[in-house]
Amino acid sequence: MTHDPRLPTLEHVMDGNPFELIDSPFAEGKMERWRANAMATGTMGYLAQVYEMVRNDAAALEQKAAALDAKKSAVLGTVNRLLKFMSRVDALTSRVEALEAKHKADEAEQREFDEEPLIPSP
Q: Is this structure's pTM higher than 0.85?
């Protein structure tokens, strides 16, 4: 950070007559040294509060992100279990359908056999 030569340094502001008029970034023109010191102190206190708010917000956001990651992980686990279950159901359904088709074919064959006339053997 560069120093603006129009403004006094911190050492110059802190030392000297408190009623001396000095250039300050807090006002147009000049203001008393004590007033500039008080405004700088208040500004630094406010900046500390802002820093605290930002830090707390960042911590809360980090906690929310961790909770969201945990929920996402739980949902993905549930979806994976559901997909495995559905694949097993599909496999069982295929087996049952194959067995039903075989059973129907066997029944049709049996009906054909039963409908054929019996021819006595000579």
A: no
